[in-house]
């Protein structure tokens, strides 16, 4: 006896249903494995530290627009044009004190020995130089606003 066509149709549907369920189960496993991999190997940009963010790009710096000063055999590069302009307005001794102090990280005593000055004189030169530079930079900023 031959089985009815409705029985054959029902068997095919059950087989198809089983195959679909197995395929979906496999997709679910693959998807979860993929998500776990991404969580392990990927990081959101907002979660990166400044150091890590800095490694994501580079900036070409050719030094064409930078100003160079020479003090005691050191070549000191000043990248900000406004600061460079203010430094040029200072006397040589005051400029040397500022450059050695802030760009070469030298103490007042070290600067004094290098320039044959008393430590208190180095302090006064730096203090007055910073005041002059501040005034020059403020004037330049005010001129740009106008």
Automatic annotation (TrEMBL):
<dbReference type="InterPro" id="IPR036388">
    <property type="entry name" value="WH-like_DNA-bd_sf"/>
</dbReference>
<feature type="domain" description="RNA polymerase sigma factor 70 region 4 type 2">
    <location>
        <begin position="82"/>
        <end position="131"/>
    </location>
</feature>
<dbReference type="GO" id="GO:0016987">
    <property type="term" value="F:sigma factor activity"/>
</dbReference>
<dbReference type="InterPro" id="IPR013324">
    <property type="entry name" value="RNA_pol_sigma_r3/r4-like"/>
</dbReference>
<dbReference type="GO" id="GO:0003677">
    <property type="term" value="F:DNA binding"/>
</dbReference>
<dbReference type="InterPro" id="IPR013249">
    <property type="entry name" value="RNA_pol_sigma70_r4_t2"/>
</dbReference>
<dbReference type="Pfam" id="PF08281">
    <property type="entry name" value="Sigma70_r4_2"/>
</dbReference>
<protein>
    <submittedName>
        <fullName>Sigma-70 family RNA polymerase sigma factor</fullName>
    </submittedName>
</protein>
<dbReference type="GO" id="GO:0006352">
    <property type="term" value="P:DNA-templated transcription initiation"/>
</dbReference>
